[in-house]
């Protein structure tokens, strides 16, 4: 009972600290929104100018979708482009932890619908997605949140 | 005595609920398998697939669907055909007609698939992922030499910057490295291995695989 209450309070605290997220049942939802259309440069620095140029040459104008929450241990940024999507439309996203005074760290790279929503667990150890598998059927995705080299 | 035995036998035979549900589950599973059995190399050839890519395309289709497959709706999105192009934008990128026309025209699906694969190959080249070709990858006791078809198949995990294949390359082909698994926990390495050795010349304009289909072999001999 106390553990459940703790989770709810942790979630409520996260919600209070964030202007861009919605409290989900099992964590905090990061809902991607289009923030840079036909981008030549990523203001967050997740995607390099070269990455964006490659997307432009291969698929067309690159769009960037982002969502972020600020917590006591830093800001969690989820960033996605329209340039790396499979046949089911699941596109690579990057979860980045930005801690004060430190270089941003890539923590996970979920695949998810373009402009979709992922849920970061209250303990920041998992990020969950609602995906479409390669057979066209729903897939509840779960990714470890840990430094990616 | 005999009539007594006969009249009692059906009552004794009644299956328990667990058996009924188990059999029902098996039946549903078999139906699902039949519904998504995938297209053969021959049927893909008949739909206009270039002979050199038919075996690989069939391998991909086995995980996806048949020409007339429609997926259940997931958040309003459905996926169509032998390669399960979804109408969240991907289908629209590679097919400008209606969904019904796409389903009823296997040749359109084959053309869309080739176009998609060429884009993926171009992305893999631009992002330096093709440099892994020729290297050996080992995962769960199975090893394979990475070929062009390995790369194309693993692009299901993304072949752009920061994708699973990119991370694997940066991690020196360490299949246990972070950021190299999909949401179901499947390693990109398993796709590199299962996709290895196919001829994908119709996409890459060169062949480092093996021709298995009779038509492709015939073409080579000519």
Automatic annotation (TrEMBL), chain A:
It comes from the Bacteria. Residues 1-24 form the signal peptide. Keywords: Signal. Residues 130-149 are annotated as: Disordered. This is Protease inhibitor Inh. The lineage of its organism: Bacteria, Pseudomonadati, Pseudomonadota, Alphaproteobacteria, Hyphomicrobiales.
TrEMBL record, chain B:
It comes from the Bacteria. This is Uncharacterized protein.
């Amino acid at each position: 009972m106390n553990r459940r209450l703790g989770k709810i309070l942790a979630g409520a605290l996260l919600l209070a600290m964030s202007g861009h997220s919605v409290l989900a049942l099992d964590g905090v939802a990061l809902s991607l929104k289009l923030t840079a259309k036909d981008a030549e440069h990523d203001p967050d620095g997740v995607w390099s100018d070269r990455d964006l140029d490659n997307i432009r040459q291969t698929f067309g104008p690159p769009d960037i979708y982002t969502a972020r929450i600020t917590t006591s241990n830093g800001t969690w940024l989820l960033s996605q482009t329209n340039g790396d999507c499979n046949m089911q439309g699941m596109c690579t996203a990057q979860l980045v932890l930005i801690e004060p005074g430190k270089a941003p760290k890539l923590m996970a790279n979920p695949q998810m619908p373009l402009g979709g929503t992922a849920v970061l667990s209250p303990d920041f150890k998992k990020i969950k997605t609602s995906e479409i598998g390669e057979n066209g059927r729903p897939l509840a995705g779960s990714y470890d949140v840990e430094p990616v080299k | 005595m005999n009539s007594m035995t006969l009249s009692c036998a059906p009552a004794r035979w009644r299956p328990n609920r667990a058996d009924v549900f188990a059999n029902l589950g098996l039946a549903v599973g078999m139906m699902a398998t039949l519904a998504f059995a995938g297209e053969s190399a021959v049927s893909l050839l008949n739909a206009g697939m270039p002979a050199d890519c038919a075996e690989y395309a069939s391998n991909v289709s086995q995980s996806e669907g048949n020409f007339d497959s429609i997926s259940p709706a997931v958040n309003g999105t459905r996926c169509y055909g032998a390669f399960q192009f979804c109408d969240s934008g991907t289908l629209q990128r590679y097919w400008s007609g209606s969904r019904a026309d796409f389903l009823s025209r296997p040749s359109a699906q084959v053309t869309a698939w080739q176009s998609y694969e060429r884009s993926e190959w171009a992305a893999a080249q631009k992002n330096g992922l093709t440099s892994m070709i020729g290297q050996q990858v080992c995962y769960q006791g199975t090893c394979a030499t990475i070929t062009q078809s390995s790369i194309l198949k693993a692009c299901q995990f993304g072949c752009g910057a920061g994708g699973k294949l990119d991370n694997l390359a940066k991690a020196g082909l360490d299949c246990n490295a972070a950021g190299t698994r999909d949401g179901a926990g499947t390693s990109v390495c398993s796709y590199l291995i299962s996709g290895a050795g196919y001829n994908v010349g119709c996409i890459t304009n060169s062949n480092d695989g093996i021709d298995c289909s009779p038509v492709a072999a015939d073409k080579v001999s000519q």
